[in-house]
Amino acid sequence: IFLALRFGDLAVRGQLGRIFTTKLAPFFWLEIALFGAALFLILKAPLKVDLGRLMRMGLLLMLAGALYRFDTFLVAFNPGNGWSYFPAVPELLITLGFVAAEFLIYLAAVKRFPILGGAHATAPRT
Q1: CA–CA distance, 117 with 51 (Å, rounded to integer)
Q2: Which pLDDT value is given to residue 47?
Q3: Residue range 89-117, pLDDT digits in tens
Q4: CB count, 10 Å around CB of 64?
C-alpha cells in the first residue's frame, strides 16, 4: 500500500520524471528496493510461521522507513537559497536521547513480557 501511495503521490503531483533525474534519485530507489524486498519476502511463500523470514521482513521495513525519514529531513532538506542547515548539538543530543529511551523501553518490554520465544535459561545448581 505504501509503495502504491508513494508512486501515486508522485504521479498526481507530476513529479514521476524526477525519480530518474535528480541527485537524490539513488536514495529514492534504495528506499523502494528495501520496501520491495520486504514485499517479496511476504509474497514469495505461503503465509506460515517462519520467524526468520518475519525478522528479515521487519528489519527491511524498519530500514526502509528509517531511510525514508532520514532522506526527507536530512538529505533532501533545503531551507532556501543562501541558507544551510545542520542539526545543532542540543538537537542531536535530544535525538540520541529518544533513541536511547526507545532501546530502554524495548529491553524492559522484552524482559517483562514473553516477546522473544525460545527456551528459558536456568541457573546451574551448586
Answers
A1: 10
A2: 61
A3: 999 899 899 999 999 998 898 888 877 76
A4: 21
Q: Cell digits for 89?
A: 548539538
Nearest to 67 by CA among 105, 16, 28, 125: 28
| Whole-angstrom distance, CA of residue 98 vs CA of residue 104 | 10
CB atoms within 10 A of CB 35: 20
- pTM of the entire predicted model: 0.65
| Residue the block writes with cell 503521490 | 9
Crossing angle for the helix pair 51-70 and 25-44, to the nearest 10 degrees: 160
Q: Tens of pLDDT along 49-90? A: 677 788 888 889 999 998 988 888 777 777 888 887 777 899
Indicate the SS3 state at residue 92: helix
Determine the Cα–Cα distance for residues 53 and 46; give it in Å rounded to an integer.
12
